[in-house]
Amino acid sequence: MTSVLMILSAADHWTLKDGSKHPTGFWAEEFLAPYNKFKEAGWDVVVATPGGQKPTVDQTSLSVKGGLLPNKIATLKDELARLATVLDAPENLSNVDPDAFDVVFYPGGHAPMEDLAYDEVSGAIIRKRMESGRPLALLCHAPAAILAAQNADGTSPFAGYKMTGLSNAEETLNGLAKKAKWLLQDKLEEAGVEYEKAKLPMRPHVVVDRNVYTGQNPQSSEDLADRIIADVS
User: Tens digit of pLDDT for each residue in 91-138?
Assistant: First the structure.
């Protein structure tokens, strides 16, 4: 059976440049849409976090402020409740063998900017994974996790790779660009990534370069999962 390791952030906030803590977590749709797609394909899915901590859902991703209609919010909340046993007791990332999985998938939300961007365990998994040639996927803010996967000389193994992730324009639309210590698009470009984005903000956009799969925003969640399923099946 095809298997997926979904790695979620354990952070419940994002520290802004003034030192304040912006409440956050994983973005509901970015976890649920791929998770459901993988399960519908008959795949086995394991969820892991740093330290095995219970992940926090970003409440904005379950609100009208997050761009959702009431019926969509209700659906997402029902699905999270259904998966409570999965999310309440994730695997400890340090104890997981990523080589046992066909796909490693990182959902986003602002939370990866707080912990996965600096997590050595996650960084080692990412570096080994991309070198293996087996699928590695990162969605929205989750490409921040590649920042913890530097080479010994401080360069990024992703230099020269085509990737996407939440754009500066989209962060501005979120109202957080001016408050952030750093922006994802800037960091990816500084790492030598050939950053790509959709022509318009908040539109689906998926980029695949070798074994690295990236989606730009929440709207890319289903497309990213579909592309992985099509390539791996």
Answer: 999 999 999 999 999 999 999 999 999 999 999 999 999 999 999 999
pTM for the whole structure: 0.98
Q: How many domains does the chain have?
A: 1
The DSSP element (H or E) to which 126 belongs, if any, is: helix 120-132
Instruction: Report the alpha-carbon distance of residue 205 to residue 178 in Å, rounded.
Output: 24
CATH code where residue 192 lies: 3.40.50.880
Give residue 65's region: left, alpha or beta (phi > 0; psi -120 to 50).
alpha
Of 204, 139, 188, 205, whose CA–CA distance to 7 is shortest? 139
pLDDT digit string (tens) for 150-201?
A: 999 999 999 999 999 999 999 999 999 999 999 999 999 999 999 999 999 9
